[in-house]
Amino acid sequence: MAQPRGQQKIQSQQKNAKKQAGQKKKQGHDQKAAAKAALIYTCTVCRTQMPDPKTFKQHFESKHPKTPLPPELADVQA
Ligand SMILES: [Zn+2]
After folding, report:
1. Which side of the chain, N or C, has fewer Cβ within a 10 Å radius?
2. Where in the cell is it found (predicted)?
3. Mean pLDDT of 5-32
């Protein structure tokens, strides 16, 4: 017995929704990997790498309070 066309369409849509959800999940994972790869701020004192200037500034202020802040961090709102 063949299924009515309408039902087939709904099943197809559900399948697509599942597929899209899977892709979304994958994209989120890729973004995380990309963020991990983008550790572009290297501490000038101890060479620790950090993903963003905010983290870098917080690191710098807590780990090297006696070292003058690098000029590129002066404007960063930590
Ligand atoms: Zn450091």
Report:
1. N
2. Cytoplasm; Nucleus
3. 70
